[in-house]
Amino acid sequence: MKTGKGARAGQYLALLAYLVFLAFPFLWLISTAFKPARELGSLHPTWIPKDPTLANLRQAFDEQPLLDAALNSLVAAVGAALIAVLIATPMAYVMARHRTRLAKAATGWVVVSQAFPFVLLIIPLFLVLKNLRLINSVPGLIMVYVVWALPFALWMLVGYVRAVPAELEEAAAVDGAGKARTLVSITAPLLAPGIVATALFAFISAWNEFFFALVLLKTPEKQTLPVVLTHFLGAEGAADLGPLAAAAFLATLPSMVVFAIIQKRITGGMLAGAVKS
Amino acid sequence: MRRRSLVVLAVVLGLVISGCTSDDSGSEDGRITLRFQSLAWQQESVDANKELVKEWNATHPGVKVEYVQGTWESVHDQLLTSFEGGEAPDIIHDASDDLADFAYGGYLADLTDLVPERLKSDIPQRSWETATFGEGIYGVPFLQEPRVLIANATWLQESGVRIPTPERPWNWSEFREITDELSDGDGKYGVAWPLKEPVSATLNLSLSTGGQLFHRGADGKVKIRFGEADEVVPETIHDQVNTDGSASSSTLGSSGSDTLPGFFGGRYAMVPLGFSYRQQIVQQAPKGFDWQVLPAPAGADGLAQGVSPQTLSIAEDSPNKEQAAEFIDFLLRPENMVRLALGDWMLPTGTEALKDPALHTTEHDWATGTALAAHLRSAPAQSVRGYPEWKDKIATPALQEYYSGAIDLDELRGRLVEDGNLVLKRYQR
């Protein structure tokens, strides 16, 4: 069916509106990051700063250890993403391929576990980590992030494994490939986009996480970026807006870069084999 | 090849983990180490706190204080978890309206016998009351700020209205008339009330008219009553917005910072804000913008106003309470209290510190705020158990609806009192 010109224009307009809606907060953040304090109090704010300045960036770096915090965040997020994927992938394979009662119960439990608010978990988690002497340590935080990301990662990966036709594995077996060979040569490449997407999810949720890091890390040199960003906030909504925007802008860059690099692979992988060519 | 990749991955993970393990150290060389969690966030204030810690450490070789940077964001939950986990800092910076649960829960040390006499007598009783729960004192109140009217000085002078002073403030009806006079009915308003959090603003200002709202009976139980004295402030705000059109309705859901662009842009003649907002105004006001600090309107009880001062507490689990109290005493010596106050653009509670010339200058209207210090009282209800739930579930939506004109005064009264007493009852069984 051919789409009319008017309908196509409407679609593009809707797409543009959606893009503006999504991009608005980020563009505003960039604009604020480069505005001097007096422009931040203007009744008629402009998108492009009239008198752009790097003072907010300088102040943000002068006042807070942003680079150290970013490194801590990176270690925590990469560590959590890798471990979560390493644990979740074989589990997801078993749950997807062996539809036993246990697998069904496990899937149900995974969904139910998402319903627990983190406030309910934080004190028991704190006590467990204290007994393991992992309070105020990035590995302790990684452990929490892995536990936190695992149910959803598992749930995501089960879906990806199910999307890989079991017939392909059977065909490989018929051709004489062993189980390990089949997993490595047939299943793993097809599952790669799903693994990357799951790792990305775990990375971004750990990179942005605030409350666990606030509670579990005590010394300034171990704090992660979201916690350090709150040092620009005062009581009752008061904020040092310029430096906060500058630091927040920098904090969004790594996840954007990671996503930009791998998003093509994700969509490409997901669509591969979707249609006969 | 693949196996080697897996081994490399495992080694990298192992290195990452082993490289970051905790090195939580206790006391060094037999010295006592105290952890002081500060919520200072403005650079001047952080610097003042860190300098004081440095000075203490230089003069007290036996007791080392570690500065821990906390944050106002989620401080209650963070402290609660630390208390439960037995990992709370020894010295805790917070605000008096956040202490009730911790004090009643046994997490904080009773400071009655720990605080030295000098500090006890330096801080007035009305300030100590803000951190007194039951029979004990659970925090040393040290910084506070009145709510003041930040005014566009040029606008007020040109209008010819009487400029109020702490000695001769406006009363509430005069304030309403003046805001009406300052408005032009065409986008310029006499006042903009930033009431994102309407409960504390309403209750604290209502002390000036004798409003108490929470009344403790002989049995120790608290009941809510909403009498004539409680009505003055909410009625004034309601009428300014809905009857006179002298207050902007668009700022009712805003924070103080959100109203500043309109204030600088000449849309509002006055904005009621905390005294410390002057710093933001100094930073953001356009060049040549002339502003001044005016006292909030007075009522039957004069300029009385509720405040929840910033406090310093000691964790009940701290093994070194006496040393922690000594550090608090050092931190709150009059000259040090002044440094902390100037860093935060707030007022000290100590009577000696309040005499400091730096707090009596006309620059940035420090003198006007300092003149109000004697009128500041404990915020109503901050020691009432169940207040946070009443505030969030009952009072905040009820006041927001009343101020926007969605409900009338009778409906407001019914919700605050009847629904409110049901909430309090659950906490007072």
UniProtKB/TrEMBL annotation, chain A:
<feature type="domain" description="ABC transmembrane type-1">
    <location>
        <begin position="70"/>
        <end position="262"/>
    </location>
</feature>
<keyword id="KW-0472">Membrane</keyword>
<dbReference type="InterPro" id="IPR035906">
    <property type="entry name" value="MetI-like_sf"/>
</dbReference>
<feature type="transmembrane region" description="Helical">
    <location>
        <begin position="108"/>
        <end position="129"/>
    </location>
</feature>
<feature type="transmembrane region" description="Helical">
    <location>
        <begin position="182"/>
        <end position="207"/>
    </location>
</feature>
<feature type="transmembrane region" description="Helical">
    <location>
        <begin position="241"/>
        <end position="262"/>
    </location>
</feature>
<dbReference type="Pfam" id="PF00528">
    <property type="entry name" value="BPD_transp_1"/>
</dbReference>
<keyword id="KW-0813">Transport</keyword>
<keyword id="KW-1133">Transmembrane helix</keyword>
<keyword id="KW-1003">Cell membrane</keyword>
<dbReference type="InterPro" id="IPR050901">
    <property type="entry name" value="BP-dep_ABC_trans_perm"/>
</dbReference>
<feature type="transmembrane region" description="Helical">
    <location>
        <begin position="141"/>
        <end position="161"/>
    </location>
</feature>
<dbReference type="InterPro" id="IPR000515">
    <property type="entry name" value="MetI-like"/>
</dbReference>
<comment type="similarity">
    <text>Belongs to the binding-protein-dependent transport system permease family.</text>
</comment>
<feature type="transmembrane region" description="Helical">
    <location>
        <begin position="12"/>
        <end position="34"/>
    </location>
</feature>
<feature type="transmembrane region" description="Helical">
    <location>
        <begin position="74"/>
        <end position="96"/>
    </location>
</feature>
<protein>
    <submittedName>
        <fullName>Carbohydrate ABC transporter permease</fullName>
    </submittedName>
</protein>
<keyword id="KW-0812">Transmembrane</keyword>
UniProtKB/TrEMBL annotation, chain B:
<keyword id="KW-0732">Signal</keyword>
<dbReference type="Pfam" id="PF01547">
    <property type="entry name" value="SBP_bac_1"/>
</dbReference>
<dbReference type="InterPro" id="IPR050490">
    <property type="entry name" value="Bact_solute-bd_prot1"/>
</dbReference>
<dbReference type="InterPro" id="IPR006059">
    <property type="entry name" value="SBP"/>
</dbReference>
<protein>
    <submittedName>
        <fullName>Sugar ABC transporter substrate-binding protein</fullName>
    </submittedName>
</protein>
<feature type="signal peptide">
    <location>
        <begin position="1"/>
        <end position="23"/>
    </location>
</feature>
